[in-house]
Automatic annotation (TrEMBL):
Cofactor(s) recorded in Swiss-Prot or TrEMBL: Fe cation
Identification of the protein by name: Ubiquinol oxidase
Molecular function terms, GO-annotated: alternative oxidase activity; metal ion binding; superoxide-generating NADPH oxidase activity; ubiquinol:oxygen oxidoreductase activity
Cellular component per GO, a single term: mitochondrial inner membrane
EC top class, as a word: oxidoreductase
Keyword flag Lipid metabolism: no
Biased composition (Basic and acidic residues): 64-78
InterPro entries named among the record's database cross-references: AOX, AOX_sf
Bilayer disposition of the protein: Multi-pass membrane protein
Cofactor note: Binds 2 iron ions per subunit.
GO biological process: alternative respiration
Record region (Disordered): 55-89
Length: 346
């Protein structure tokens, strides 16, 4: 009897309120139902179907409308099932993600196995250029250079105190910050391009690529380090402060903003070098590389943490070059669009 009551209460919650919220929380990635980050497969039919129903209900203004939409959707699905299956045959297992008919064709890896990620595609992957000079340093000459350099050195003090040699946590936290400047810079250049009616010279794309690359560093690090609640709280606080500070800083002086990032990247190279030293000495276990990193950097299947940190460090060296270069362009009294943007520079 109690079980019956519990069932009706739960059902009522889902239909009247919970369903709406859940529907909004479900990402297209989840609805598509491909294998997710941990490699587990969420793609069984019943699961997709129930999620689809929740999405329908989230769009509808009333339960009755939701029911009608679902029924219509069901009829449409049945009547067009033969044509859909034909299309599926042509596209090779495309899965309709919603009643909007958005589908993704089957994507495979080079070895023929199914591509497991929705967050990035095979053509966005690359092999890191490990030959890059890690020791390059921009010697601060001008007043602004010195301000940028000192700012970064000052920021390092609380980081050293808080994390000490816990390089996993340190890297995870710093990547949440490192992915901000590219997005802010790219966004501001985008808006500038709209206001001024001119091209950005590719710099919007280059900076957004950097932001995405940094975010992939973070997605890799969270597979290795599970952040604690107070670290998540710290991320929220730091992001709130840093995003706004960088936004204002970039509006006032993009040459200072890019110089600061150039020096932050130099510090990141240093931190990852220390991380590698601790892996080499055995202080940090050289665990197998997360699957996401193997696919993103096209690493060998038996790659380890050491390989991952090595390619991330090479990425940071590229970001260092891009940002010092951007700052130099401004120092020469030019706009970024006047110099070729380093698109795809990893
Ligand atoms: Fe990074
Ligand atoms: Fe970076």
């Amino acid at each position: 009897m109690n079980l019956r009551v519990a069932w009706f209460v739960t059902r009522g919650l889902i239909i009247n309120g919970g369903g709406r919220n859940y529907g909004r929380c479900i990402s297209t990635e989840a609805v598509v139902g491909r294998s997710m980050g941990n490699g587990s497969d969420f793609g069984n039919f019943d699961w997709r179907r129930s999620m689809k129903m929740m999405r329908t209900m989230s769009t509808a203004s009333s339960p009755e409308e939701a029911k009608t939409l679902t029924e219509k959707d069901g009829r449409k699905e049945n009547s067009s099932s033969s044509s859909v299956s034909e299309a599926k045959k042509d596209q090779g297992e495309a899965v309709v993600s919603s009643y909007w008919g958005i589908a993704r064709p089957k994507i495979t890896k080079e070895d023929g196995t199914e591509w497991p990620w929705n967050c990035f595609m095979p053509w966005e992957t690359y092999r890191a250029d490990l030959s890059i000079d890690l020791g390059k340093h921009h010697v601060p000459k001008t007043f602004l250079d010195k301000v940028a350099y000192r700012t970064v050195k000052l920021l390092r003090i609380p980081t050293d105190i808080f994390f000490k040699r816990r390089y996993g946590c340190r890297a995870m936290m710093l990547e949440t910050v490192a992915a901000v400047p590219g997005m802010v810079g790219g966004m501001l250049l985008h808006l500038r391009s709209l206001r001024k009616f001119h091209h950005s010279g590719g710099w919007i794309k280059a900076l957004l690529e950097e932001a995405e690359n940094e975010r992939m560093h973070l997605m890799t690090m969270v597979e290795l380090v599970k952040p604690k609640w107070y670290e998540r709280l710290l991320v929220l606080t730091v992001q709130g402060v840093f995003f706004n500070a960088y936004f204002v800083g970039y509006l006032l002086s993009p040459k200072l903003a890019h110089r600061v990032v150039g020096y932050l990247e130099e510090e990141a190279i240093h931190s990852y070098t220390e991380y590698l030293k601790d892996i080499g000495s055995g202080k940090i276990e050289n665990v197998p590389a997360p699957a996401i990193s193997i696919d993103y950097w096209r690493l060998p299947k038996d790659a380890t943490l050491k390989d991952v940190i090595t390619v991330i460090r090479a990425d940071e060296a590229h970001h260092r070059d891009v940002n010092h270069f951007a700052s130099d362009i401004h120092f020469q009294g030019k706009e970024l669009r006047e110099a070729p943007a380093p698109i795809g520079y990893h």
